[in-house]
Write a structure and sequence with these properties.
The complex is a heterodimer of chains A (116) and B (110).
Chain A (H helix, E strand, L loop, with lengths): L2 E5 L3 E2 L5 E8 L7 E7 L6 E7 L4 E3 L7 E6 L4 E6 L8 E9 L2 E5 L3 E5 L2
Parallel strand pairs in A: 2-11
Antiparallel strand pairs in A: 1-3, 3-8, 4-5, 4-9, 5-6, 7-8, 9-10, 9-11
Chain B lengths: L8 E4 L5 E6 L5 H4 L2 E5 L6 E4 L13 E6 L2 E6 L8 E9 L4 E4 L3 E5 L1
Parallel strand pairs in B: 1-9
Antiparallel strand pairs in B: 2-6, 3-4, 3-7, 5-6, 7-8, 7-9
Classes of the chains: A mainly beta (116), B mainly beta (110).
Chain lengths: 116, 110
C-alpha cells in the first residue's frame, strides 16, 4: 500500500519561502506523476503543480512564478518550494500521486500557516 | 485557473438516490475523463471513481460515475449517514496543462 507523508515547517513568515517534502513509502516514486494540492480552511481544492519522476514539471499558471518542485528518487521523496508567501497561502497542503484524471493516493495533509 | 462547475449543495433523504453533477469543457471533462473524490471533514480526499466509472478497491457499489458530453455525474444509491461529505470532481485540462477541480458539492443526508 502506497503511503505519502508531508513534512516541513508549519509556520512561515510573510514574504518568506514555504518548503515541504513528501516521502513516499510502500512503492517506488519512479514512473509516476506526483502533485501538490492545497486547501484553505473551509474552501475547495487547488492544484499547485506536479512533477514526474524524471523531473519534468507542470505548474498551476496562477502560481507558476512562485513555485519550484523537485524530486529525489534515491530517497523516494519530492518537494515543493513556494516563494514570497502571504496570508492567502495559508492552507492544508497535500502531496498526492496521480495519473490524469485520477489522484489515487493522498498524504494526510499538513497545515501551513503564514503569519508573523 | 478555470475550474469545473458543481452545485454547492445537495440534500437527500436516507436510502434515497443522489446525483451530483460536474460540468467542464471539451478540454477536460468532455474528452479526457473525470475522477470523483469524497472528503469527510478533517480528512484528506479519497478517490471514489477513476477513468470515468471505475471504482477503486473497497469503494461501495452504491457509487457509480458516468459522463455525457462535457458533464460528468456521480450517482449514490441507498444513501447512508456516512455518505454525508464533500464531493469533488477533477480532470486534467489539456489546454491549460493543469489539473482542475470543481468547487465541491456538500451532500447532506436527511
Amino acid at each position: 500500500q502506497v503511503q505519502l507523508q508531508e513534512s516541513g515547517p508549519r509556520l512561515v513568515k510573510p514574504s518568506e519561502t514555504l518548503s515541504l517534502i513528501c516521502t513516499v513509502s510502500g512503492g517506488s516514486i519512479s514512473n509516476y506523476y506526483w502533485s501538490w494540492i492545497r486547501q484553505p480552511a473551509g474552501k475547495g481544492l487547488e492544484w499547485i503543480g506536479r512533477i514526474y519522476s524524471t523531473g519534468n514539471t507542470d505548474y498551476n499558471p496562477s502560481l507558476k512564478s512562485r513555485i519550484t518542485m523537485s524530486v529525489d528518487t534515491s530517497n523516494n521523496q519530492f518537494s515543493l518550494k513556494l516563494y514570497s508567501v502571504t496570508a492567502a497561502d495559508t492552507a492544508v497542503y497535500y502531496c498526492v500521486r496521480g495519473v490524469p484524471p485520477d489522484l489515487d493516493y493522498w498524504g494526510q495533509g499538513t497545515l501551513v500557516t503564514v503569519s508573523s | 485557473q478555470a475550474g469545473l462547475t458543481q452545485p454547492p449543495s445537495v440534500s437527500k433523504g436516507l436510502r434515497q438516490t443522489a446525483t451530483l453533477t460536474c460540468t467542464g469543457t471539451s478540454d477536460n471533462v468532455g474528452n479526457h475523463g473525470t475522477a470523483w473524490l469524497q472528503q469527510h471533514q478533517g480528512h484528506p480526499p479519497k478517490l471514489l471513481s477513476y477513468r470515468n466509472n471505475n471504482r477503486p478497491s473497497g469503494i461501495s457499489e452504491r457509487f457509480s460515475a458516468s459522463s455525457s458530453g462535457n458533464t460528468a455525474s456521480l450517482t449514490i444509491t441507498g444513501l447512508q449517514p456516512e455518505d454525508e461529505a464533500d464531493y469533488y470532481c477533477s480532470a486534467w485540462d489539456f489546454s491549460l496543462s493543469a489539473w482542475v477541480f470543481g468547487g465541491g458539492t456538500r451532500l447532506t443526508v436527511l
